[in-house]
Fold these 4 entries.
Entry 1:
Amino acid sequence: MLILYIAYFIVTFSVNNNMVTNEVITGSNFKKWKEDIEFAMEMTDVDLSLVTDKPGELTVASTDDEKLVHAAWMKSNRICLLSMRRLILDHLKSGLPTNCTAKELMTTISERYRVSSNADIGSLLQVLFNMKYDGNGGVRDYVIRMVDYQTKLKALKVDLPDTCIVHQALNTLPPEFSIIKTNYNSQDESWSINDLISRVFAEEKKLKKEKDQVALYVAGSNSHKGKKSKTYTNKVVHGTTKEPGQSSNIGPNKVSFKKRVTTASFVKRKVT
């Protein structure tokens, strides 16, 4: 069973409690839009009209299997056309065929929003060589994202060797990974992508452990200082500290005064 929930800029498909949300095409999101449509139609088992041409018209001689295929294709075509048109803004529908199959409509839309491979190559290279590791997601995921761009470029016939990715990854890591960079630059042998990932991941774990230890030490040191200061303050308040020249048996709330004694010498004069 297929249920369509229509909302502005999205269409949600509910099939057997499975929800799939599709974006409305805006032009720049065509690639994702197409992938979402194909996924949704396949998940709902109505993608037949997107992957096959329209079957021949039924005749008296048509077999039961041919009738079943024809009925399934017609149902698929109706649902796919409805879904695709719901996912196109009104002002973008201009020039699109109205009397066509779902497969033909997808082909027409693909031609309209087709992006040249040169533009794709330029965009991918720009992203790849402007990447900087910011600590989010972990260093292993960072290298894997670089490999993903390498794979996409390879599909466009731009083959970047693993050595290039290794150099680019190391050059864009923060100074904390300088030991890894030094180790690599001091060797004549190149690392594979897997070697790089294992080394930088191990270094990241070591750096994190050291950072946690430093934080724990600082926290403990501050806690010790706080207790010491509090103890001294309490002693002063209760008059239990011993100052130079002060009696050690002075109790709380008592004040000690040192008496300064001046000794005077008296000389008896004989009065004649």
Note: Residues 1-8, 252-259, 261-272 have pLDDT under 50 and may be disordered.
Entry 2:
Amino acid sequence: MSGCVVGGLGLGRAAPSAFACFLRAGELTWDALGPNTLTVSFVTFAADRSYATVTLLASKTDPFQQGATLLAPAVPLSTCAVACLLLICHHRAPQEPLFMLKGSCPFDRGSFVTMLRLCLEGCGVVPSSYSGHSFRRGAATWAAANGADADTIRALGRWRSDCFRHYVDRSAAERATTSRAALYSNTSASLRLDIPAWRDL
């Protein structure tokens, strides 16, 4: 890490893409350049800049390295992934790593997590419970809170099973609302105790 600066360019520009594309930490960080390192050449933009396309050559759930195409929508926010990617790719060579630290140093996982926790601490948030998967987990939770169904979240996060449900955190109030709707929405009907479902068979 000699000569590298932990902060600045790394997290501030990587975080919007990590969130918008449900990226795993290993998909945006790197220790040494390799064939699967995410580079500038793997990002393209719609003609009207309404979205950006990020191509992954390989990932954790892609053992045959078929690749995956991720889309980040443009939004009118300071955390817009498209705006950040445009800044990153501007006047950069196609073969350069998409994310790196000042001094062209590797954007490794340790630095990524360190920067994340420093930023959280600066915002008054206890950082110890956060990790490289926090953006992915947060994206799944936020999508669910905004009404996205399970199939949509599974597709956006490229999960092959329902394991993503472990990522979706719901508050006590949300769980109570779900329970109320599932168990007490039909208060006019009598609860039948004579059906097989109640019995210890």
Note: The chain has a mean pLDDT of 81.
Entry 3:
Amino acid sequence: MKRLNKLVLSPLFFAPVFSVSAVLPATNNQVKLNKDSSELINWDDYKRLVKMYTPYYSKLGVWDREWMPTNYSSNKYDKVGIIEVDDFDSSHLLSQNSSFVFKRTNSKEIYRKSNHGYAVTSIIGTDFGINPNASIYYEASDNLIESIKNLYNNYGVRLINMSLGPVDPYYQVKKAVQNLNDSYFGSIGSKYYDFDVKIKIYPKDIKELMRSFKILAKAIIYYTYKNNKQIYGASGIQNLYKTIGEYALQNGIKIIQSSGNNNDEVSEYMANNEFLNKPQFLENGRISKDKIYRAFKSFFNLVKNWQNDVWPTEEERNYNIKLLYLIRVILDKAFDDVRWIYENKDTNWLKKFDFDAFLDADFRKRKLFDAITDWQSLIYHEGIISVGAVNWKNIATNFSSYAKNYYGSYPLVSAYGDKLNNDKAGLLKSYYHKNNYNEIEKYIKSSKNNKEFIDKMSYIINFNGTSKFAPMITGIISRIQSKLQQELSIEDVKLMLVSSATYSKTKASGYSSSSFSEITSTYEHWRRNHAKNKTGFGIPKYFKMKQIWDSGNIRRVRPHELGKDFIDSASVLQIYDSKYINEKWKYWTSTFVWKHKKSFAEYWKLYELNNNPYVSWFRNKWLPHLLKAIEYKKSKDPDWNFDNIPIYAIETDMYKYKNIFARRWILGSQEPRTSVQHVYFYKKDPEATYSYTNYLKYAELEEYLILLLDYLAYKNNIKLDENKVKDLYYYLTHPLLEEYKNYVTDMKQKYWKHLKENVWLESYTNLF
């Protein structure tokens, strides 16, 4: 994933176009790379190169893709937008389509070139990619929301890939240090004169000490993250992605985003004190902050004197001297509060660093874990489809980012993101693929074509990270839209991705909270909607997505049409569907995707506690009490916010019948911050018959009813059973709360009206 260094018009739609294109001609067994390229390549080499990622595509269920396209046909649903930080030379893209479309949508801007955008584009479209018919609209930009609007409003693009993300805190500090002006750079490059000459640093220790100082500096950045998160722009990043997600939902734009590569920023080396257990750092056998700092000063001066001997090449010297300056800035500020003010702003950057507390390894683990999961969660929004990374064995990679606990479906699904070299053991079991890759590697090492093209092929064979697998999902969506000749909604795409996916191979634990020890391990746990925390619902299959669509079994409803049974009951459950299962099956799953124009809180402007325009003692007598209840809740729990309220939930009664006996299981799915809920059941008894009833649970309504009744009980000194305060049935049947029953009924009526005006739901039930 590329790091992003910076943080409603009426859409213009185009008339449907369907066209068939010819294949470019070959001359003397040579072809152009694409119609706009002047470079020729041997036809046999070309056919070999475009098969490089075929094993990955096959594992994603793309089985109808020709290994070498013999004809092309495109329509308006083939449009794909790509937003990247850098540009690239499109003349090296591989496509024999005589009508191949690659359009830069901000051609007046000049951006530096890299191979990243080339790899992303190649995976989505071109003869190399999943949808050779794709028309690519490419935007190199550091203004994401403006780029999305440009692609949508001016080019009619509704499918956009973003293999990029915000700069992590450590990298932000690194860039800020590198951007210091010459005068200041000179000061941090000058020697220390207040160090202890008795601390001996030997040249043989330099490499190991440099490693320890780097780990320490990086650990300090993440350990102090909570106190410095706004300095790193955390709220700005979160607001940016919220704006992007809301714009996507409002306009039906499918944005596919890399989950990120930040997960291994916090390493296991930071988790204990082994890297600090050096003779130079000890005072009377104990790790000493003072000795570490004095040792660093001695180390710094020594390295400055011997840098040409320590790092013989200019490239090594430049890298390590910059790293040394970065470490110096962090340690000077954290240990002595001297010298640098972060980005020339009057902030408290690193001032609250407590070294004694830092030495408590367990406490440090919690701080580091909270820091990295909070940072990774900033770019999650329900309006953006996030993709995680697995290796060839369908196991989570150590670098792939994921959200903290109870924070939605992030990532939603996963695809393949490891290096080909790491995947070779499984990938090359096929003789065909083994032979093909041997020939590709020979080609890359040869000098058959110019250096720039060979460099791009070398880059893409070693390509890895979330930037690699997000375009795989984008390519699948583009391909299925092309085949169906239909623009799919965000909800359609989520439903088919989740319903077609196969879970990662790692066995997940129950709904537990993960901790530092599991950050970069293969460990996973379940979220409350049966997604796994690191890989989501798993790896989707293109052929299965198409089967789901073609089956005609996707159910789309307006929830208010299901009825009003929940209004008069002591619950918030409404029957969604009920069925006896007559087909043969082993696994049963039901996936649901919710869509709303507004949440209940937005509909009633519950954010406006003091001047709410809907307050009226004549019409909405419940509303003033609910607003007071929200205020009361916030006073008790400062971390409470509207975003943590579940949108909805699913409860399922699964019945087993055998002989004269019946058994019931209660299944459920209730993850906050997500529109996707998923329930499943494994049939253990092949001789029994089964039936199920799915209930739509209005969890958002339930939360507000509990808030209201809890507040009314507090206000009227009604003592409640502490063990039942989260049980709505307990509230609704409590005799002392009986007088407020009208408030409850009114709120439920208003919620039904909200459903009628704002909410849609679609689902798919799968038996296999």
Note: Confidence is low (pLDDT under 50) at residues 5-18.
Entry 4:
Amino acid sequence: MNKKEILAHITGKNVYTEEQKRLLYAIDKAREDLKNAVEYFELVNDPRLVDYAIYMEEAAKAKYAYLLNEAKKSNLKVISSDILKEVKVG
């Protein structure tokens, strides 16, 4: 982290661009969607809905992995206080 980023973080100024903010929001939403899909799969009782639950979980995993890859490709670094909650994938 350079001096500018440290100063911005200390003073509370946001160091993320609008595009980075959108990506971070999308990652957080995808993480939440994945959590919900896993919970739905664990709760579903009707055998006819099991395939749907599996499909939803796999789709949520794929989206989450894609967004994390996009963040990695764009060299997005998250300040420690802004770290998103960790989710188990796979």
Note: The chain has one domain: 16-82.
